[in-house]
Fold this sequence. Notes:
This protein is α+β, with helices and mostly antiparallel strands. The protein contains 13 helices and four strands.
Amino acid sequence: MKFKSSGYLIKEGIKSIWNNRMMSLASIGVLISCLLITGAAVVTSMNASSLISSIGDTNMITVYLDPQISDVDALKLGAKFDLLDNVKSSEFYSKSKAIEDYHQMLGDDIYANMQGEDNPLPHAYKVSLEDFSKYEETVKELKKIDGVYQISNRSDIARKLTKLNTLVTYIGIAAVIVLGLVTLFIISNTVRMTMYSRRFEISIMKSVGATNSFVRIPFLVEGMVIGLISGIISSIVMIALYNPILEAIRSIASVVYKASIPISDIWIYIVLAFLGSAVLIGALGSFISVSKYLKKEGGEILGW
């Protein structure tokens, strides 16, 4: 196909949007609605995963050291903990600090008798993990280090958080697939209505010898432009509403707000995802719809 012909077909596709503006507006409205619903499902899933991860981060494990270990050797163990792949940080928790925290509960007399060598509590470390789902593997590595006596058991919490995170991910993927198929179905039917209203035009083009590509390209351009417009509007709406919605959540649940993903970190992905998916769905919907008529000739298109 010559470049001049390509330019003509692209112009015809863009012109067709205005000539059939009511149907185009209907397609844009439907696509915007579906994009916003799908985008909201994805963003909600991402923030739920972020919340679960933040919960995991606050559940640090406590590593208790051998009661016989010296103060100097106890301090040296922190460097060994930090070398492990899944350890984010380790904070030394001396036995003197531990007994001080129990001061009020024990009372002055008992507290006074548990100082120095009489302190029965061991040194410990508060260890924060990079990935809480790797809790059991990290515990095994920690236990191999000389001087480690016991580790607080958080395996049950780790398993539950991992399962919950996996569930949220699967729900998010399922929502995207289902809403994507629904969007494609709606757009395809909307474009099919446009095709039906223009069946005379297609019939004439086919009758004078127009090739399938010549007939299809304007409709593909039309679908892609409609998708592009819908993607731009959806991106603007989603980004504009994101922070106000988070502020509303903040007044209800501050924990959820603190764990939420800031719009500055994801706005570019929202724009790219909306534009890419909208253009693809618009083109695919047009392709599917027009293919039905390209298989027919002349009067068949008109139902004669």
